């Protein structure tokens, strides 16, 4: 017998059949669903964009850099590591207490040799039993140790050195963050300038097309104008290609994710306090992080010499011992006779000869100190010269910004006059194009002058050891 299973049943009435009211109701439901779907999509998109935008002032950027930058985190971790090293050095002053225990199976027992006169026969007499158990509590307390004293001072100086290194790293990151922040601002501004130039070139093409139709201009004029549009597009693309790498450099310094869109809120200006430069040569010599590190490096070399020389001095320790031991030929531990012994005493160690090892180590440390002193003297002369160079460059770039700002105003007026002449039919579009290019070059030169001044000023702050706080 064969059974037939019908998987699909043919509908007796198509789903679209019915009265007009039903069709209208179904259509309204579909429209409502589509509307809700579109509204949800727009809301989600808006939320994602809002979440990806990060508005940053320069102060906010510096705060993020000091909190999230990897180099600063590593430098702070090295400071913490050195703090534990100092605690370790201080721990050498404390007593050492430890327990030791052991078991020996005397396969061949130890012997003691006795003289023949004792009447014991063989002079070699075995000692002990088969099983030997022992446990002891040992105490060691340093009373005098030149090494412990020198090591503590050396580690304290090393901690100061590491803190100064951390300070220098933070200053360098602050310097790099300021430069990257304003580099991103300038890159965005250059894109705006090139975009305005493209818009103006396209407006000129539209105007020339109308005049060609009127017969007042020729196709040659139109083709020339279109060439200028193509050049403007190329300049815009080149400017836009710099946004991503410059932005990523800033995000890397701030510890931000690449997909975040940065919106910088500060403006491209020279702050008034950045113009008030006074002679900080002594401040630079006293506060420059690299010079302070070199001073501490010299101090470390001197402490290293003293610590190495401690090998010439004796050490005195208080020692103590409390022992618990037993010996038997069986393993009935509960029946053992456990014996307790104890002692206290002083231990003196005095080095006599170690193959001139200490002498050679001292000579190496002295050479390292001389090298550190020479590096400090060279760096001081170098930074003095660099300081004078930065002051000269700051004056030059400030004058350049004023000149370029005046030039930008003049070219803006010339562009406005060229456009008016062109509108009244007196001038040509070539005059407008030349005026547009002159204005663009002047604005770009002004932006470059602002960038050069800010960069030089931040290097000046880094040189004189200016802290963020």
UniProtKB/TrEMBL annotation:
Residues 191-242 form a coiled coil. PANTHER family: OUTER MEMBRANE PROTEIN TOLC. It comes from Aquimarina celericrescens. InterPro entries: OMP_efflux (IPR003423), TolC-like (IPR051906). The keyword Transport applies. This is TolC family protein. The lineage of its organism: Bacteria, Pseudomonadati, Bacteroidota, Flavobacteriia, Flavobacteriales. SUPFAM superfamilies: Outer membrane efflux proteins (OEP). It is found in: Cell outer membrane. Its main location: membrane. The keyword Membrane applies. Belongs to the outer membrane factor (OMF) (TC 1.B.17) family. Keywords: Cell outer membrane, Coiled coil, Membrane, Transmembrane, Transmembrane beta strand, Transport.
């Amino acid at each position: 017998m064969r059974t037939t299973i019908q998987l699909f049943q043919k509908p007796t009435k198509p789903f679209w059949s019915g009265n007009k009211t039903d069709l209208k109701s179904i259509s309204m439901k579909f429209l409502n669903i589509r509307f809700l779907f579109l509204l949800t999509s727009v809301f989600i998109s808006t939320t994602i964009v809002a979440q990806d935008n990060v508005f940053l002032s320069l102060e906010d950027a510096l705060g993020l850099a000091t909190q999230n930058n990897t180099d600063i985190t590593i430098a702070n971790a090295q400071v913490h590591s050195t703090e534990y090293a100092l605690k370790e050095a201080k721990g050498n002053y404390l007593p050492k207490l430890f327990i030791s225990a052991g078991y020996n199976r005397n396969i061949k027992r130890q012997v003691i040799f006795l003289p023949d006169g004792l009447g014991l026969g063989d002079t070699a007499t075995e000692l002990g039993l088969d099983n030997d158990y022992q446990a002891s509590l040992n105490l060691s307390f340093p009373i005098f140790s030149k090494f412990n004293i020198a090591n503590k001072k050396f580690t304290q100086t090393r901690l100061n050195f590491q803190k100064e290194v951390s300070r220098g790293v933070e200053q360098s990151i602050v310097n790099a963050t300021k430069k990257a922040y304003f580099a991103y601002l300038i890159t965005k501004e250059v894109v705006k300038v090139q975009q305005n130039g493209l818009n103006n070139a396209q407006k000129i093409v539209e105007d020339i097309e109308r005049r060609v139709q009127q017969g007042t201009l020729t196709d040659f004029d139109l083709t020339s104008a279109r060439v200028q549009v193509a050049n403007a597009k190329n300049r815009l693309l080149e400017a836009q290609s710099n946004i991503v790498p410059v932005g990523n450099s800033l995000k890397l310094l701030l510890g931000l994710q690449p997909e975040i869109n940065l919106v910088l809120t500060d403006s491209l200006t020279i702050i008034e306090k950045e113009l008030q430069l006074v002679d900080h040569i002594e401040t630079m010599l006293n506060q420059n992080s690299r010079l302070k590190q070199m001073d501490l490096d010299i101090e470390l070399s001197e402490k290293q010499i003293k610590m190495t020389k401690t090998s010439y001095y004796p050490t005195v320790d208080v020692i103590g011992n409390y022992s618990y031991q037993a010996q038997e030929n069986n393993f009935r531990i509960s029946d053992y006779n456990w014996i307790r012994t104890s002692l206290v005493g002083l231990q003196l160690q005095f080095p006599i000869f170690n193959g001139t090892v200490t002498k050679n180590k001292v000579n190496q440390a002295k050479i390292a100190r001389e090298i550190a002193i020479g590096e400090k003297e060279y760096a001081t002369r170098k930074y003095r010269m660099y300081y004078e160079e930065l002051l000269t460059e700051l004056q030059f770039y400030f004058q350049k910004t004023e000149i370029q700002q005046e030039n930008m105003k003049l070219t803006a007026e010339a562009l406005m006059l060229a456009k008016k002449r062109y509108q009244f039919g007196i001038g040509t579009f070539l005059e407008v194009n030349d005026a547009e290019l002159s204005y663009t070059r002047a604005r770009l030169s002004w932006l470059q002058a602002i960038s050069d001044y800010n960069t030089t000023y931040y290097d000046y702050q880094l040189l004189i050891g200016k802290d963020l706080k």
